[in-house]
Amino acid sequence: MDTFAFIIHPIDPKRDVSRKFPFLGRILNERQIDFFSTFFPPVYISEIEGITSQATGREIRGWFIACPYTPRRMMELPERMVYRKIIQTGRLAEKLGANILGLGAFTSVVGDAGITIAKALDVPVTTGDSFTVSMAVDAIRQAARVMEIPLDLATAAVVGATGAIGQVCTEMLADDVERLYLIGRREEALEELRDRLQPRARAELLVSTKMNVLAEAQLILTVTSAIHDVIRPEHLQPGSVVCDVARPRDVSAMVAAARDDILVIDGGMVDVPGPVNFHFNFGFPPGKAYACMAETIALALEGRFEDYTLGKHLTRERVQEIDEIAKRHGFRLSGFRSFEREVTPQQIETVRRNAIHSRKMRVAQM
Ligand SMILES: NC(=O)c1ccc[n+]([C@@H]2O[C@H](COP(=O)([O-])OP(=O)(O)OC[C@H]3O[C@@H](n4cnc5c(N)ncnc54)[C@H](OP(=O)(O)O)[C@@H]3O)[C@@H](O)[C@H]2O)c1
Q1: Is this structure's pTM higher than 0.85?
Q2: Smallest CA separation from ligand 1 atom 15, residue
Q3: Is the beta carbon of 13 within 6 A of some atom in ligand 1?
Q4: 246-274: per-residue pLDDT in tens?
Q5: Helix H segments across 121-249?
Q6: How far from 203 is each of 186, 288, 320, 333, CA to CA, in Å?
Q7: Ligand 1 pocket check: which of 126, 132, 223, 228 to mutate, most ligand atoms within 8 Å of Cβ?
Q8: How far apart are the first and last CA of the chain?
């Protein structure tokens, strides 16, 4: 049977450590988990069974293994130390007999996005970022449809536009919308990206390092590597859609609490083909996975045991290819979820109604 392994790591330290070690999760605070994670070895989490290709009927087997570092730790520690721990975790995948290894969340963000890690390991490696792009763009297109926002007339924004995932999302959305804001921290890098994409783009591309331009956007795709939230309620216009692909999240939980006129959706949740059992609760309902996990699994189903998505410069061709492979084996964009809860059609209707009301109130106050 073909096999894969996928590296996860604690994102919300207390919650995620409690999922594997309830006692440690209870007694340690966030700072202590951060500190002790430096000395913790890689952890075997679970065996994954039941994934079956819709195209070939073939079943594969996999494993979750964990790199103990939190996002904060991965950003604070010297790069070579972080690489060392991820490579150690990769060796565990090799011992288990994995044919391909996926790098989850920050293990794919750190340094050169998998290149050094892949060089040090015998098992082929992928970050999963290509399929993450594909599912994020699909999600924003679908959300525009249900919110009745005409895509071709919309103003959109990509937050973290200069990032590995952000760049290709920007390139793809630039073909869809009328105006597109490229948002990040480094003006020069944003301008470079704009100058590269503008000649072939349908949209007018604008750059900004300020979040307040989000007030002009109806569709926002956010995918930064910030370790704290960057989008707050006051940044957003009524009726807008925010697709949050980042882990940890970019959208403050306050947005859900304070704004019932905005649709915030989690980017990158995918239905997995076959009666899958992950034997581990990573916060999703049964049968669903992150898009980056799905890329790793789809490559295993396809028998493509090679380094696939690596580095900070993804290509649209790879995004297209993995999209075709994954869909053929039965992966589908899952229904919308927001802050780990399902979004029902009634909720979408409520958001639309509230947005109309908020807009009227704003006009009345002018
Ligand atoms: N949902 C999924 O399935 C999935 C899969 C893979 C990855 N992810 C998540 O996607 C995110 C991005 O990954 P990546 O590989 O694209 O990372 P990346 O290449 O490091 O890019 C990160 C981007 O975020 C920007 N940024 C960082 N901190 C910021 C801040 N405080 N304010 C505004 N912009 C900021 C960076 O801007 P500068 O140019 O200024 O550095 C850069 O444009 C991570 O959270 C990762 O965990 C999710």
Answers
A1: yes
A2: 109
A3: no
A4: 988 999 888 888 989 999 999 889 999 99
A5: 129-146, 164-173, 187-197
A6: 21, 33, 21, 25
A7: 223
A8: 66
